[in-house]
Amino acid sequence: MTTLFLVRHGLTAQTGRILYGRTTGISLDARGVAQAAGLVDRFDGVRVTAIYSSPLARCVQTVEPLAAARRLSVRTDDALIEMDAGEWTGRTLGQLRRRKAWHTVQRSPSAFAFPGGGEAFTDAQARVVAGLERIARRHRSGRVVVATHGDIARIALAHFAAAPLDEFQRIVIDTAAVSVLELGGPRPHVVLMNDTGGLGRFRATPDAPWEAGGGSPRRPKVRG
User: Are 158 and 165 in contact (CB under 8 A)?
Assistant: First the structure.
């Protein structure tokens, strides 16, 4: 069993205002830098065997302090990148909410592709799920931090929770939030969503023994 810690990138000056998609050169602001530094303390005592990231700077910067503290490299993977927003790239969310197509994004995202050659939600979900499963196979019994983007994390979590893609926006993922998946067993497990505090439950202590694969604490067997 592989444990994946999905981390949404920290705050930027544009977060919540502009749909910047795959625009390069957008860095964390001072708040995001503080969130990135805070991840080091949040993962204190949690075994981490590898760190992956979307190639975009805001994601890499979010996990760089943790990688430095653990003496690990940040491996970038295109499967984790933000959706290609096509012609909507760089538009404010206020402008986009006035478009008729915005209602499709909100109600039936499985039927939507960003105009101007942008990505479809179905394609984005397929590539991030395949990417996470590939990482899990590469690090069997590992505990891997994966830095990505809000919607990418949400559509991945919807898939592994067996929820319809059209309902993925019921899932809330805050900046620098950590969500946890276990992959590699008979079925995937969504262990944690949108945590912005401590990760103490994943520390190995005498009172919280871990399964042989290094996954979550042993679950009690249900009888009868």
Answer: yes
- Helix (H/G/I), strand (E/B), else coil: 74: strand
CA–CA distance, 175 with 35 (Å, rounded to integer): 8
> Other C-beta atoms within 10 Å of 210: how many?
17
Each residue's pLDDT tens digit, 47-71: 999 999 999 999 999 999 999 999 9
Picking from 97, 126, 131, the residue whose alpha carbon sits closest to that of residue 110 is: 126
pTM for this structure? Answer: 0.90
Question: Model confidence over 160-172: pLDDT tens digits?
Answer: 999 999 999 999 9
Could you tell me which residues come within 8 angstroms of residue 118 by beta carbon, excluding any fewer than 6 positions away?
21, 83, 84, 85, 86, 87, 88, 89
* Kind plus residue range of the DSSP H or E element containing 107: helix 101-107
Q: What HEC string does 115-180 produce?
A: CCCCCEHHHHHHHHHHHHHHHHHHCCCCEEEEEECHHHHHHHHHHHCCCCHHHHHHCCCCCCCEEE
21: left (phi over 0), alpha (psi -120 to 50) or beta: left
pLDDT in tens, 105-147: 999 999 999 999 999 999 999 999 999 999 999 999 999 999 9
In three-state secondary structure terms, 66 is helix
List Cβ neighbours of 211 (8 Å cut-off, separation of 6 or more): 1, 217, 218
DSSP per position, 173-214: --TT-EEEEEESSSS-EEEEEEE-S--GGGS-BTTBPBPTTS
